[in-house]
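Ticket #356: bound-state structure for fe (iii) ion.
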Amino acid sequence: LTILGIESSCDDTAAAILHQPIVGDAEILASVVHGQTDLHAPFGGVVPEIAARAHAEKVDLCVEEALTAANVSLLDVDAIAVTAGPGLIGGVISGVMCAKGLSASLNIPLIGVNHLAGHALTPRLTDQVAFPYLMLLVSGGHCQFLIAHGPEYFSRLGGTIDDAPGEAFDKTARLLGLRQPGGPAVQAEATKGDPKRFRFPRPLLDRPGCDMSFSGLKTALLRQRDAIIAEKGGLPVQDRADMCAGFQAAVVDVLAEKTRRALDIYLTENPSEPLLAVAGGVAANTAIRAGLETVCTDKGVTFTAPPLALCTDNAAMIAYAGLERYHTGARDGMDLSARPRWPLDQTSPALLGSGK
Ligand code: ATP
Ligand code: FE
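RESOLUTION: The complex was predicted; output attached.
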């Protein structure tokens, strides 16, 4: 079975081709991503109107490039999977319209995919991972713990009540005059700094459950930065590194402790091979990975993270989630609609991909 995946929900236009032999694992034949970072850079964040226009312009090109790279013709494609939400609606519509057109003209099945299900199922594309497993999705726009029970059945244990960690890294970089995206820049500075010099809160650790909050870190950072500037007339390089180290250490502590709690809940399900998978751009952070690995080792749980290109937005994960849905018999019609909001734990089998 050969499946085409299309992704256009945020600021990456992407297409991918997966092939699954009758017996055996799915293989990525091609995965093409056209980012829009340069287009949005002058505005300091993703501008929905610009994103929508760029997706509309690039989506056909991405599909053509993926087909060429995979050395596959459109006539070889057996099904089309497309992100139907959640995301910036203008972009999602571009992908969904393209997928509908191809599905109708080629007379092949159309499968709507929840973008978050794409992230959450990625560990099964890259490794032999059995349900149920615990997933920490941690990116520029999301932060949540999910138990993946099946390809269409997820339960959400908790998540951020305000900013996502990636957003907090990006804001931190902006406040300290570092380049975007902020995550790698802040991480690099943090290696040169003292994490104990400045005090950062560990929000919500005093409360039970898996919910998190990251917006207070930015406020703490701003206050301390301004105090230094008032005192010294500028921000010396070492102070900046110390702030990055302190900020990152706070994020690591919060994620590690909340992961410990999420694992406790997950382990009550008695999984035979307990596993925590992490995905999302923030999973690239080595300090965060190390923190999560320590917690997993303590609890006797395997830790896994897909390769970075499959952790950030891509269409291979959408094609794969589509493939999993395909095997459950799920099919969507021309009434599949693009959804700006679509919580994953509401994707009960009956609702998932129905677009209603
Ligand atoms: P979403 O997928 O939720 O819609 P997104 O597309 O913004 O959001 P990703 O592409 O998964 O998210 O990840 C980008 C985010 O990851 C950015 O906020 C970036 O700063 C962050 N990031 C990347 N590398 C690192 C790192 N080494 N440390 C911390 N954060 C990082
Ligand atoms: Fe994403």
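RESOLUTION NOTES: The longest strand covers residues 27-35.
TICKET STATUS: resolved
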